[in-house]
Amino acid sequence: MIYALLAIAAAFCAYIQWGDEIPIPNFDDLNQKEAKYVHNVNKKAEKEKFKKTLYEKNPSGFMTVEEYEQLSAPKDRMSVEVEIPKIPTPADMVYVPQPAYRIVKYNNPPGVAEISLNKTFYEKRQLNAQGIVSPDFSKLVYPSVYYYPDSASTACDLFVINLEAAKSNLDKILTANVIHRLSDPILSTDKNIDNYYTFRTLTPVDFSADGTRLLVKEKIGNSKDGIWKTTPIVYDFTTNVSYSLVEVRDAISYYWEENKGLRLEDKRWDVYPLGFAADNPDWVIVNAFAYTGDKPVNLGTWAVNYKGEQSRLVTFKSETVNISMNGYKIIKQGVVPPSITEKEEEQLKRIEKSNAKKKKEAEKAYKKDLEASYEAKIKEMDKEFKEQQKDYKLRKQIQGSTSGNEILIKYNEIKEKQELKEQQKLEKLKQKELKQLEKENAKSKADNANNGNNNDKNSGNGVVNSSTGQN
User: What pLDDT sits at residue 24?
Assistant: First the structure.
């Protein structure tokens, strides 16, 4: 304990004796070093920001979790652009036949639209069938059929795709894609899979003349037993309400039982929706027939109100009924001639080459502008840092020579002189630039005057030579 106290006392005596020689940290230098360190950190952050902006031009896998989540966020399906599908050209072929398309009436002849389920449907378990386009080419309606292998049954939804308004009618249909469809179907069948081998489909028949209503036929049956029942359905786009026209089946059964004594419930029969009446779009025309095992028996052509409120017999001769055909579809119409395809290919190559060149120039200009902005930012930061250091040294110098309020007064005086000197320097530079500009303008005027005189002399020489030639 005593030795420890003696050691402390000896150290204290040494501090008193050689205190002037012990180095004391210079806090002013530390402030300058800290400011320089902060300045370098800011410059490095600006450089990283510049590099990051370059990388973001062409995004890669090197990104933060926040950036990845932002890029992978769900997009509005209606805003996604879809190009017209093109058949890829094999490398070993010069010409590949390109299919040509044309627009035709969908319900022609009336009531022929059907859904065909091929082998591919049972392998992929889904099928997007032929769609129908409204008379004003504003929307496309198509059925999507699903296959459930557990019960070998099918179900169906009817979806709507709003077509783009800024394209031609053919391009509207060709670029229609399921990614643009409305999320909820307008009609759906029962999706119960308890009954084996049952199928339920929704087939569009036709639009009304004004495009506000859609006639659909729902078919229910069994793959082993055939069709059980077809029900006409009308969907109203103005009210988003569907009407199942089951009343027309009841009216047909009642008529044949009351007038002919035939109970259709004991027979196999069905209705065949044809479309909207041409003379009255509020009425739907259906044809009824009975199965006999050989040739179907005509049960009459009937009309039913689109809401299913009234039903009546029209005729037993369907060819006398006028049915409107309003919806559209596209079909293949041969192939594009090779000469046209080759010219289009050459034109596309030129366009693609020009677009690639423009893209490269745009990227180069973008990078150059970005680099110029970055260099200007660094230059500004360096200038600001130098001004801060200069101001800091000035304050330090004044504090060493004055005290009290004189520090602030002297600082303001020096700053005013520096600002005045800087302003005079800028004014002098501006005057120099103006004189240089005036000198260049005067020289340009003198050159123009000399060129004018030379032209006059040349024209005079031409006249003399001409007259000499005539002599």
Answer: 45
Are 131 and 218 members of one domain? yes
Do 181 and 321 sit in the same domain of this protein? yes
- Residue carrying the six token digits 């030795």: 3
Residue 158: inside a domain: yes
Query: What is the extent of the structural domain holding 34?
Result: 30-73
418 falls within a domain: no
Backbone angles phi, psi at 428, to 5 degrees: -65, -40
pTM as predicted: 0.60
pLDDT tens-digit map of 137-186: 999 999 999 999 999 999 999 999 999 888 899 999 998 988 889 989 99
- What is the per-residue burial (b if ≥16 Cβ within 10 Å, else e) of 370-409? eeeebeebeeeeeeebeeeeeeeeeeeebeeeeeeeeeee
Residues 296-323 pLDDT 10s: 888 999 999 999 989 999 998 866 789 9
Domain count of the chain? 2
> Is the alpha carbon torsion for 255, 200, 291, 204 positive or negative?
positive
Statement to judge: residues 68 and 216 lie in one domain: no
User: Does any domain span residue 413?
Assistant: no
Looking at 286, 317, 335, the residue that finishes a domain is 335
Closest CA to 283 of 222, 200, 208, 205: 208
Whether 151 and 168 have beta carbons less than 8 Å apart is answered as no
Instruction: Please write the tens of the pLDDT for every residue from 407-458.
Output: 666 667 677 777 777 777 778 888 888 888 888 888 888 877 777 666 655 5
**CB neighbour list of residue 130: distance below 8 Å, 6 or more residues apart:** 113, 115, 142, 329
